[in-house]
Amino acid sequence: MTSKENQIIIAERFRGPPQSGNGGRVSGVFANLINSEHSAGVEITVRSGTPLDQPMSTKVNPQGSAIVHHDSTVIADIKPTHLAMNVMQPPSRSVIKRAAPTSYSLLKNLNPRFPTGTGFHPGCFCYGADRTKGLGIFAAPVDDQVAA
C-alpha cells in the first residue's frame, strides 16, 4: 500500500492570526484528509502557521494518518483518535447578551500591531470584529465558562 499525495490551499479570507489560517477552519480541512469513519474523532497537531493562498503538500499514509507540508516546513500532523468530551449546559441568551461587552474581541486598540483595530486579531475570520464577512464569534466569560 502506498501513501496518497495531494495539495491543499487555504484562501486568505480564512485567515486567523496575521499571515496564517484560522485554526478551526484549517483543522476542519486537515481532518477531512483522513478517513475517520471507524474512529470517533481526529487529532490535529498544528506545528507551524498555515500559509494563505499557497499550495501545501499533503501525504495520507496507509495506516490512516496524514502530514501537511509547506516546502520543507511541517504544518500539521493528523491522526484518528477517540474523543471523550463533557459538554456543559450553555448559558441563556440573556446571560450571553449581558456578557458580550466584556469580550476581548470587541475592545478597541487592544493589539499594538493593529493600533486602530477592534479586538486582538481584528481581521480574523472567526472573531475579527473588523471583518464584514466572517463568523462574528465574540467569546466572553460567563460564570465558570466561556460563551460565544
How much beta, percentage-wise? 15-25%
Largest sheet: 5 strands, antiparallel
SSE arrangement, N to C:
EHEEEEHEE
Rg of Cα set: 18 Å
Give average pLDDT, whole number. 87
Side by side, the strands of the main sheet go 1-3-4-5-2
Helix content: 10-25%
Total number of helices: 2
By CATH reckoning, the class of the largest domain would read: Alpha Beta
Explain how this protein is built.
The protein is α+β, with helices and mostly antiparallel strands and 148 residues long. The chain is 11% helix and 24% strand. The strands form 2 sheets. The protein has a 5-stranded antiparallel β-sheet, with helices on one face. Strands 6-7 form a two-stranded antiparallel ribbon. The longest helix has 9 residues, at 23-31. The N and C termini lie far apart (44 Å).
In a nutshell, what does this entry contain?
The protein is 11% helix and 24% strand. It is α+β, with helices and mostly antiparallel strands.
Overview features:
148 residues, alpha+beta, Thiol Ester Dehydrase, Chain A, 2 domains, 2 helices, 7 strands, 24% strand
Describe how the helices and strands are arranged:
Elements: E1 4-8, H1 23-31, E2 41-46, E3 56-60, E4 66-70, E5 73-81, H2 93-99, E6 140-142, E7 145-147
Antiparallel strand pairs: 1-3, 2-5, 3-4, 4-5, 6-7
